[in-house]
Amino acid sequence: MGQRPSRSNLKPGDHIYTWRTAYIYAHHGIYVGDGAVIHFMRPGQEVGTGSVFKGSVSSRSQVPCPNCIPTHAAHGVVSSCLNCFLAGDNLYLYEYEVSFVRFITTREGTCVPTVPDPDEVVVHRAKYLLNNGFGSYDVLMNNCEHFAFYCKTGLIKTGLLEYQHSNI
Question: Out of 15, 28, 111, 144, which one is annotated catalytic?
C-alpha cells in the first residue's frame, strides 16, 4: 500500500499522502520542510477534516490547530502542518521511478514510473502554486494527486499513462 516513512525521514520535495475514509481515497501533498505540507483541496474544505466530498461530516476535531493559520484560499492550494494534513491518519510516501510491472500491479495513486524533478524544483513549484493556485478543483480531473504529481514532475496527468507538459 506504499512506503510508510517516519516523519524524521521526510525531506523537502517529498510527495506524501494519507488514506482517507476506510482507504477509499488518498489525500496528497508536497512536504516543504519545517513540518509544513502544501496541498490542494476543494475550496471551503477545512484543513484536517479528511474528506473531499461536499457535505461530508467528519468525526475529526474541529478545534483550530495552534500551528496553522486558518486559510480561506479561494483557489484551494493551502499550507498546513503535517499533523493537520494527516488528520490523524497514517503517512505514506508516493514512489517515483518504479518498474512498469510494479506500477500496473500496485494500487493506483501510490506510485508511478515517471522520473521526478530535483527536490528544489518541486518545492519551488509548490510554493508558486500556493500563491497562484492550481485551477478549479475537480475530484476526478484536477485534484490533490494531480497537484502533487505536477509539483514533482512538471507534468499534468491526463490519463493513467498520459501526461502533458504545462506552462504553469
Answer: 144
